[in-house]
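Bug #77: duplicate submission created two jobs. Keeping one. Sequence:
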Amino acid sequence: MNEAAHRITRALEDAGYRAINPSMSFPMEMDRFPGRIWVVAHKPVAVASGLGVMGIHRNVIHPKFGNFILLGTVLVASQISSYGEPLDYSPCLECKLCVAACPVGAIKKDGEFDFVACSVHNYREFMGGFTDWAQTIADSEDAADFRSRVSDSENASMWQSLSFKANYKAAYCLAVCPAGEDVIEPYLEDRKGFMDLVLKPLQEKKETLYVLPNSVAKEHAERRFPHKQIKVVDSGIGGR
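Kept job's structure:
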């Protein structure tokens, strides 16, 4: 996506137009953290241009491709020939599979979204989660104490993210979303079969869930997923 946006920007500049393509994801402006680190919020731009509508899982749903899309933005310092308009309907099915799949209850049935619950778990190996992991190293008395706090698999996962690319812990809301012409057929043909194949394995997966102490996410995880390990952590943001 970044390469495609860069080619478009280069073509515009060669034609005499000022243009820029901010990163579609990371790297971002980390000197601003924990404030707004992104240059452009691609999702609202995509919605305004008519590429899709924001689903209750806070991902843009394209009418054809569903939420299985990547977004990039090219900023141009001049008038353009035509402008897009927001869609007059929503491709979101409101099936609430994303609600059922989220292991920390970040997505609510009523449309509310708990950003902190999502970021603490899903972004465990990004910004704040990495800071908390580093704090655990610093707070440990020795190697044995550290290994009693952090499992070998957690360390291996952190190493993998540092060595290759940070990974999300639970983009399950994306995985289970059946919206979009290209992906909706299996869901419409056999909804139970779809849930058995796509949703249940995520719900039944044994994994570690990262939550803040005394949080709604902690209560939700303990109640809905007692077979998953619940780990209370710090957000890594200003000691919270």
